[in-house]
């Protein structure tokens, strides 16, 4: 099954773009993409391979998004993906950071689709909107 791929260009270095995506994810992740937008407190991304990525709600509850699988600052970030799908059948995202004349091309690839999780794929048509939120934060 084809991956979902979206690209945005930001006017900052690859290192700055990577840091905005990872270190500042709680600044740009849209609350609408959480189990309860009214109670989303923060998004936590533990910055290392094997680190957890999760949503923390105002009542202290945590909702897993995935686990970091690739960590190369300024180059590539990857994680398993379980938000809005069966955690036993994760998909994955990979984000690459490529220098361009204008700054950095950021490409998000959501793949790892197979018979066990293909039914969830249609839920993920808003990556372009989410990357727009990211781009605004990265360039701020």
TrEMBL record:
InterPro entries attached here? ASHA1/2-like_C, START-like_dom_sf
Query: Superkingdom, according to UniProt?
Result: Bacteria
Pfam families linked = AHSA1 (PF08327)
- Gene3D superfamilies listed in its UniProt record: 3.30.530.20
Domain Activator of Hsp90 ATPase homologue 1/2-like C-terminal: where? 17-121
State the SUPFAM superfamilies in the record: Bet v1-like
> Which family is annotated?
Belongs to the AHA1 family.
Q: What is this protein called?
A: SRPBCC domain-containing protein
In its UniProt entry, the species of origin is given as: Nocardioides mesophilus
